[in-house]
Amino acid sequence: MIFRFLSLFVILFSSALQADTHGVRLKDLASFEGVRGNDLVGYGLVVGLDGTGDGLRNAPFTEDTMSNILERLGVNVTGEQFRARNVAAVIVTGRLEAFARAGNRMDVTVSAIGDASSLRGGTLVMTPLHAADGEIYAVAQGSIIAGGVAAEGNAARVVQGVPTAGSIPSGATVEKEIEFDFAARQSLKISLKTADFSTAARIERAINAAIGRNSARMADAGTVLLQLNGPDNLSASHIVASIENLLITPDTLARVVVDQRSGTVVISKDVKVSRVAVAKGDLTLTVQENPVVVQPNPFAEGESLVVPRTSAQIEEDRQRYLAEVPESTSLSDIVTGLNSLGITPEDLIDILRSIKAAGALHAELVVM
């Protein structure tokens, strides 16, 4: 098992090296200014639930919303008392993608805000979705798909998944477009998802080589400025389409990520270790209680007593391991050496921490 675990490191490392030689597309490394989505949110009502809706005594806002909807539909419910359990107040969220046009469809997520126990089988009533500016950009309506399930009896209740949240695929219609004239832009900012000076410089060189003029300029580690008004009179969309598939080899910091809960260790390809010695040994402490019951002699007056008996011993693994790591060792050398020690993933985490504390691990150690 240990051999398979450490061998997997070598396989993943080799695959990462092969991927680096081919490069990564520019649109996977960076985002273009203005090409982004916008979050929408709305408050609505779900009807048609099978007795799993809000208790109107605990969620009075649900009753108010239902009264307003019925009155808009021409039903006068003033002064009436509702005790239905088939409605629930919900928050509807969605994302309006970049360049979405009126009439396009988008997915929405529906989440209960009252004491409803499940939204399974419910239908969302027409709900307007607002952006941060308060304007309505989409309207959502449709049947909810909830993945969770809940069952209860008189003395017990069991819940699997989250039945109080669901989704409506293509459940909203875009009613208003976001005003953004991308074609009229004369310049554009390319923002790196992970800021790095070397990666930004490579993007600058690749764009200038592809377009044929010095139109790209690195502003900082996370931004590359692109001038779009060239002599060939290409539109901004044509220029972005011609450069977004350029293959760039990103440069990243040397980093070791450790997940203590699952015992997962991820090591980047640029991790180096200075000359250091690693020793490994096991120490086992065993304490065992063996109480003894002492009985009085026959025909003698007395009581039975319990006499404590404790045995304690310390066992030390005689097979101590001492390995020396040479100067500027790479990841493959580290894996080979740790594999020869026969360590477990938990031991690997402790060894990496100790090497970092000794100042021999030249990488950022991230413990999750």
Number of strands: 26
- Major beta sheet summary: 6 strands, antiparallel, barrel
Percentage of β-strand residues: 35-45%
Q: Please, how many helices?
A: 7
Query: In order across it, which strands form the biggest sheet?
Result: 3-4-5-11-7-6
Question: What count of domains describes the coordinates?
Answer: 3
Which outline best applies?
A: flat
Q: What can you see in these coordinates?
A:
This protein has 368 residues and is an alpha+beta fold. It has three domains: 24-34 and 181-248; 38-174, no CATH class; 255-297 and 304-367, no CATH class. Helices cover 23% and strands 36% of the residues. The protein is built from seven helices and 26 strands. It has helices at 2-22, 26-29, 60-72, 197-211, 236-243, 331-341, 345-357; strands at residues 24-25, 30-32, 38-47, 87-96, 105-112, 123-130, 136-143, 145-146, 149-152, 157-160, 165-174, 187-192, 216-220, 223-227, 247-248, 255-259, 264-267, 272-273, 276-280, 283-289, 292-294, 305-307, 310-316, 321-325, 361-362, 364-367. The strands form nine sheets. A six-stranded antiparallel barrel has the order 3-4-5-11-7-6. A four-stranded antiparallel sheet has the order 2-12-14-13. Helix 1 (2-22) runs antiparallel to helix 6 (331-341). The longest helix has 21 residues, at 2-22. The radius of gyration is 33 Å and the shape is flat. Mean pLDDT is 76; it is low at 1-19. It comes from Marivita hallyeonensis. The basal body constitutes a major portion of the flagellar organelle and consists of four rings (L,P,S, and M) mounted on a central rod. This is Flagellar P-ring protein. Residues 1-19 form the signal peptide. It is found in: Bacterial flagellum basal body.
